[in-house]
Design goal:
By secondary structure, the chain is mostly beta strands. The protein has 1 helix and 12 strands. The strands form 4 sheets. The chain has a 4-stranded mixed sheet, with no helix packed on it.
Length: 174
């Protein structure tokens, strides 16, 4: 992983392994003000590190979310670890969206006091959420604690100035 001044990361995006074996994904950045979150966490040794061992049982696409606390920069990139059997066949893909949650709805839009987030999860999960302004600065950071099934959250935005915002939810910015 290299995090540049322009707020980009560069990862090797494809890896190949066999059942029961692991590969190391990511790269040390030297960014002391950065936080890291790999999703899905299944099969990862350290999902909050820039470098982790991935030991998936099936082909899996992981997403790395990097947040630079000093600059407010938030960026993500995908890495696919292909699992191939002895005959050279790849297992079915497990995508990021299938891993934890789906069916995201935000309302009302525009919002002035409360922004409601509604999503379905396939399992109990802690889902990072970041609200970012048009300059790329983090305005609100939170973790949504989700139970299996439908979940609705209200985010207080009364103190947030009018403008255009981006909401990154878990999975590196769905």
């Amino acid at each position: 992983v290299s995090v540049s001044e322009e707020c980009r990361i560069n990862l090797q995006n494809e890896w190949l392994t066999t059942p029961g074996h692991c590969v190391t994904i990511g790269e040390h950045t030297g960014c002391n003000s950065c936080t890291y979150q790999w999703t899905p966490a299944d099969g990862l040794a350290e999902p909050d590190s820039p470098v982790t061992s991935a030991c998936p049982s099936e082909t899996t696409t992981y997403r790395l979310l990097v947040i630079n606390e000093a600059t407010g920069c938030v960026v993500s990139e995908d890495v696919t670890v292909y699992v191939q059997d002895e005959a050279g066949n790849r297992t079915s893909d497990k995508t990021i969206a299938e891993s934890v949650f789906s069916d995201i709805k935000l309302f009302p839009n525009p919002a002035s006091e409360l922004l409601h987030v509604k999503l379905n999860t396939k399992e109990t999960a802690s889902i990072p959420m970041v609200l970012i302004n048009s300059l790329g600065q983090v305005v609100i950071r939170n973790v949504l604690l989700a139970a299996k099934g439908e979940n609705t959250y209200s985010i207080d935005i009364k103190q947030v100035p009018q403008g255009v915002y981006f909401l990154h939810i878990g999975e590196g910015g769905q």
